[in-house]
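Two proteins were folded this term; both appear here.
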Amino acid sequence: MSMSIKEVIDRVVEWLAELYQVNSEHFPKNPSEFIPTSKNPYLLTRYSGRVYGKPTDMVNVPQEAQFRIDVLIVVRSLEGDNGAYDLIDMVTNKLTGKVLDGSTRISTIYPVKDAFVKEDKGVWQYATRFEFSLISTKSESN
């Protein structure tokens, strides 16, 4: 069986936590209530969806699953150490080419896009999207 969504997101959060002076977390359950309390930037990771290819066999139903994950970068400055611009590059460099252990992979993780999300009272948000393909199979419990 392929990796679960939670396992994928847990692994990405772990990798990003290796960056210096950042708070790497799962995306909050209530994003509208999220208040950054640390002076350090936040890297919030969420599952954004998957696109499935056609099954290659109807017994086990193995098929390509194109995963999409987003990392929301929440910072108090645009430039300088741990500013938004540096963190966009750091996050991209950290995740690009990574391989999810224990998965049947087709591709490594690669960046797709990054974009400004919003600024509110001096707190800046940028999102970076990553994709990768895994082989998805029917759960053994079904």
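Next, the second protein.
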Amino acid sequence: MTKGDTALEGGDVVGAIALYRQAIDGAPLSIVPRLKLAQAYQKGGLSEKALSEARRALQLAPDNQPVQQFLTELDQENGTSDGTLTRYRTLIERNADDPAAHAGLAEALWNSGDLSGAETEYKAAKRLAPAGDHSADAHLAQLYAAQARYDDCLAALQEAGKDGYALALKIVKNRADTLSSTIEASRAAFAGGKSTREQFYDGAKTTDAQAQALAGFVARVTPPAEYKLSHLHRMLSTNLLAQEAATLRAFIETGDSKQSDSVSKLEKEAQTEMLTAQAAEEKMGLWDKK
């Protein structure tokens, strides 16, 4: 393998690949030459071949840290999740009953935009998890919320047991922050001439629908008795956010500057109510439980 290293250092990728292949032929069960071959492929811009070789190395030694690190670096270099997907798919091939591998694959699929695949893998992780482990339910609830599938989200939160309410708060905050940021960014883009009125309006309609759905979701969440007051503040916050989104849409339709001012006022009021709810819960240690 030393000759392969020398060739690769000298920029002779083709020669290095040939030499590493010879090393593999002489020691087919060795991890090192396969990893070096994968690295040579990646250096030569042959990412698919690099993934394939790393996969073979993982099949021989699933817990090999250098191979896992290579796959992580490959993702960082290529801006993809292919390395992580390869890692967890290989682990599942070796042991289809490993809940952690299914959960890891689900996260990688989610990051790569395959929400349906992520849901399937989280459900597999849930099915295989030991009794009392509700981590997959928590991930499913977050996945459903990201798609505004609030009926499914509520069902998953119920499955999550005693930690369901704390998780619901995290979901609500994340969704509210996202919607608020979306409204602010869309207004700035239109004011700066970076979007057309039609694009501005289409985005506002979508945000309006999502904000209304979030407010409806919060109204259906049942808080423990000690958090009823703070939950009222959270309900008010999301209702104000929904009003903000509806007012933005009305402003685009009418051009009434007073409605534009109302959007800014409603945004501040919604944020104040959300902070009030969270501050009360922090005093009781609820947010520490997440």
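The chain has two domains: 2-159, 166-289. The two ends are 49 Å apart (CA to CA). These notes refer to the second protein only.
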